[in-house]
Write a structure and sequence with these properties.
This protein is mostly helical. It has one domain. It has 16 helices and no strands. Helix 1 packs antiparallel against helix 10, helix 5 runs parallel beside helix 7 and helix 13 runs parallel beside helix 16. It is globular, with a radius of gyration of 21 Å. It starts with a helix and ends in an 8-residue tail after the last helix.
């Protein structure tokens, strides 16, 4: 079991580590444009999480279906699941692109940031939404491959996208030769092009290795499988949507305290996201192993693999948390040397980073249950904690007690701990073992 977990996780962990480190590097390039640019990309990233909710929901449903059919050796439904997912994902890309461009600026204005920051943010997300098809299809294909037990190819595809990204983003941000200096919109354009090129490679690989020559027909777009994809993916997307909406509310609280506070929040959030690297990698492995073991009729092994994945994720996350807290001023100063930004950024790391030790419980076990095809109970836990605790706590600490940005930091930390504990309790109840596909 340990061998299977590590075989699935290590390539994913390596790919995610590179991707997140590159994200920090890109933020460094953006920081060369000034504090307003950092704040703008931070706000834009929160809005773009609305796009990621759709992608993550689809990926959870995709992994559950593919892993279950693969574990049961059901080749006919396996191919139908892959074709149905890709067809549906293409439609989602068109809808989210139109919605993002139309509603992007009104959403950004809800944060109450300064007009210059809003304009820069919209210039970023407009480009990103125009090219969202590349990102969505790439994530769906990697979800399919992981469901099949292949974690190496998805890692190589992500690595390709990252390598392209690290060259293309600074090229379009700063310009070179005939390429114009686009600054903040250039960061989005570089990312869009990188993911699109990686997606082309992903389609070729999937077609050659896992799909028959006549796979892409309307007969393989199965209505029943689409319904199952919805039943698993919609609650998973709703769970992420709640998380994003709660984050948007927090960003709104911070944005009203000034650009320096917004920049510090963005820097702190980017640094603590490094803690999510092992969580996400082991969560993906837990989802695959849970689905495959349930497909093979071995629920006990599915539970053991999920809990072992939590243990591994927590161990790696602990090392990262210690590094962030021990050298907090050094990390923040790398992005912005303004004293106010450094002070607020360090406070964010001191308060929020330790709470990420409980994230493996929430993230890994939630994804494990999703791999079993059960996504409603995790949705209820997230809704109760974030809507019932995080937002009211932030309002109390910021507006009533007037703690300022520090109040938001505590509203991030406390619910993170509670969500992990509650997700563990739901998982141990065993409700996910009774799901049939």
């Amino acid at each position: 079991m340990v061998k299977a977990i590590l075989w699935l996780t290590i390539p994913t962990l390596a790919g995610n580590a590179v991707q997140n480190v590159i994200g920090v590097i890109i933020m460094y390039f953006v920081s060369r444009l000034g504090t307003e640019a950092i704040a703008a990309v931070s706000v834009a990233g929160t809005v773009l999480m609305l796009l990621f909710t759709a992608i993550i929901g689809l990926s959870v449903g995709t992994t559950a279906l593919v892993a279950r059919f693969h574990g049961a050796r059901d080749e006919k439904n396996l191919e139908r699941a892959m074709v149905t997912t890709l067809t549906f994902s293409a439609g989602v890309a068109l809808v989210t692109a139109a919605a993002g461009i139309w509603a992007g600026k009104p959403l950004l204005q809800l944060f109450g940031a300064e007009p210059a920051v809003i304009d820069l943010s919209y210039s970023y997300i407009r480009v990103f939404f125009l090219g969202d098809a590349g990102l969505i299809l790439l994530m769906m294909i990697t979800a399919i491959l992981r469901g099949l037990g292949d974690s190496v190819t998805p890692t190589l595809l992500v690595a390709l996208a990252v390598v392209l990204d690290v060259f293309l983003e600074p090229l379009f941000i700063f310009g070179w030769g005939p390429v114009p200096r686009l600054e903040v919109p250039g960061a989005a354009l570089g990312g869009v092009l990188a993911y699109t090129l990686a997606t082309v490679a992903a389609i070729v690989i999937l077609r050659r290795r896992h799909l028959s020559k006549r796979a892409f027909t309307w007969a393989n777009v199965d209505k029943k499988l689409t319904g199952q994809l919805f039943s698993i993916g919609v609650p998973a997307s709703a769970q992420m949507l709640i998380r994003v909406l709660a984050q948007m509310v927090l960003v709104g609280f911070v944005a009203r305290t000034g650009t320096a506070a917004m920049a510090a929040f963005g820097i702190g959030n980017q640094l603590t996201s490094l803690t999510l690297i092992p969580c996400f990698a082991f969560a993906m492995s837990a989802a695959v192993l849970t689905g495959q073991n349930l497909g093979a009729g071995n629920a006990a092994r599915a539970e053991r693999s999920a809990l072992a994945s939590v243990g591994f994720a927590a161990g790696v996350a602990a090392v990262i948390v210690v590094g962030l807290v021990a050298f907090a001023p050094v990390w923040v100063r790398r992005f912005d040397d303004k004293p106010e930004v450094i002070t607020l950024g360090v406070q964010y790391l001191y308060i929020c980073a330790p709470s990420y030790l409980f994230v493996p419980l929430g993230m890994v076990l939630s994804r494990a249950m999703g791999g079993a095809g059960v996504s409603v109970p995790p949705l209820f836990v997230t809704a109760a904690v974030l809507l019932g605790i995080r937002i009211p706590l932030a309002f109390l600490l910021v507006n009533v007690l007037e703690w300022g940005p520090v109040g938001v930091y505590w509203a991030v930390a406390v619910p993170s701990v509670l969500e992990g504990v509650l997700m563990f309790w739901i998982f141990k109840s065993g409700v996910w073992k009774r799901k049939k596909l």
